[in-house]
Amino acid sequence: MNYGRMAIIQQNNKDFVYYLGDVKVDGKNIRFKPFVDSLKIEDAETMNDIMSTESFPLNSKSELTLSNLYYVYDNTNYKEAKGNEVANSIELVNTNGKTVKAEFNASDYEQSKLTDNKTSYKVDCSNIEDGIYYLRVKCKPSGNTFYYVNDMESEEPATLNKSYNEIKIAENEIPTSYSLGDNYPNPFNPTTKISFSLPQKSQIKLKVFDVLGREIQILADGVYEAGKYEVEFNATNLPNGVYFYNFTTGRNSITKKMMLIK
Prior knowledge:
By secondary structure, the protein is mostly beta strands. It has one helix spanning 44-50, and strands at residues 2-11, 14-25, 28-29, 56-58, 63-73, 87-94, 99-104, 115-124, 131-140, 146-154, 165-168, 179-180, 191-198, 202-210, 215-224, 227-234, 241-249, 252-260. A hairpin with a 2-residue loop joins strand 1 (2-11) and strand 2 (14-25). The longest helix is centred in the N-terminal third of the chain and has 7 residues, at 44-50. The chain is globular and about 60 Å long. The model is unreliable at 79-83 (pLDDT under 50).
């Protein structure tokens, strides 16, 4: 049995559809994370979490295949979508530190590139480090948006002679400098993601504090290898308002602002 999940992002009287499915690792079918389909999806972060597969092991000799499609549904003027109000892509995420190893198949909803036919892909894993990974659809909408998800299942095709487009994963690129990304989404409710980069192995601390300078939460603290990282801040139990997050390592210190709106 093959498993798939379809994200439907409704915005400006258009339904932006993005599908990920038929995920296999060394011939084993990979399911998606379970979710409660009766719950309303409030934001992009929740949508991204729901549009994630279960985790699976990968190494440089693994065979990873998947299918993907995207289109705008029942839209009388496809050219309106050219501004790409909605952007989707697929991320390959290492569960160790939730680092994004690769991002591919970014959506482009221009009329000439719309299709409702699934395309099959084979991911070249030769530059993959041994580890546990998962795939997720990264949704980046703008403006007033409604989110929906459909699960899909299909029997294995009778023929195994399937053609694949290849996705090449680049070798690890070590960042050239320390950096702290803008949290996304911002404003947020109740969770947001914060990314940072390290050019070398470093002792780091990432913490959140309020407008009075009181420490709210430590998101990361310890020695990290060179690379790119992403952490989540959950403000479920905090009041509305402005918060700051500070990233320090050695002589480097960066502070940015974020807004919680419930």
